[in-house]
Amino acid sequence: MKDIRKIHDTAREKNIPVMKNSGMSFLLDYIRDHENIRDILECGTAVGYSAIRMAMVRWDMTVDTLETDPGMYEQACRNIREFHLEDRIHPYLCDAALFETRKIYDLVFVDAAKSQYQRYLEHFYNNTVPGSVFIFDNLSFHGIVDDPELSHNRSTVQMTRKILKFRDRLLKDDRFETVYYPDLGDGVAVSKRIK
Ligand SMILES: C[S@@+](CC[C@H](N)C(=O)[O-])C[C@H]1O[C@@H](n2cnc3c(N)ncnc32)[C@H](O)[C@@H]1O
């Protein structure tokens, strides 16, 4: 069996933005501490690193994971097979905003196109119930969301403006109880559905 750290290190060497260690540890601890979490939806598979880590927390959990990039998707499928997790991790090659299912998820982990987070939230709202949780990564985007002067790239700054708008809206959204952790990973929010 492959070493999970190898997937992480190889991805990082290739500049594939797999979740940072502190964010990953938080996410795994959260799943460990909430034994009701069985069915997970992940937006943004990349090479399957976070999906594999999540599925390894408990043997009875399933992860549906969505990815648009065919190369990433193929690599994720290979990695999932190497860990013999193909029965529990189901990768889909598709745009997360277009994925349709009637399944109800306990946890939706959002780590795909940053400018689309509000769209994903609304799109998958009906695939959750009160008590389900959304977890969003990259809400700080290397600090640029709170300090746009850190970037001189116009499209990055435009994207971080969208993240800020989403973050502000999420914190006020009374359908959820949201806690934002700016220093975890790349800025992580946990939103528990209460309505
Ligand atoms: C930050 S990476 C995911 C990292 C992964 N969750 C991990 O930590 O191992 C984001 C991924 O989302 C994918 N992506 C971007 N837009 C997407 C979309 N609309 N639907 C699904 N996946 C998307 C990208 O191709 C990229 O592989």
Quick description:
This protein has helices at residues 4-13, 21-33, 49-55, 70-82, 117-125, 154-172; strands at residues 39-43, 62-67, 89-93, 107-110, 133-136, 176-181, 188-193. It is an alpha/beta fold and 195 residues long.
CATH-defined architecture: 3-Layer(aba) Sandwich
The CATH class is identified as Alpha Beta
Overall geometry comes to: globular
Helix/strand/pairing category: alpha/beta
> Helical amount among residues, as a percent range?
25-40%
Please state roughly what percent of the residues sit in beta strands, choosing from under 5%, 5-15%, 15-25%, 25-35%, 35-45% or over 45%: 15-25%
Tell me which ligands are bound: S-adenosylmethionine
Low-pLDDT runs: none
Spatial gap, N to C terminus: 43 Å
CATH superfamily: Vaccinia Virus protein VP39
Count of distinct structural domains: 1
The ordered string of helix (H) and strand (E) elements is HHEHEHEEHEHEE
Largest sheet: 7 strands, mixed
Radius of gyration: 16 Å
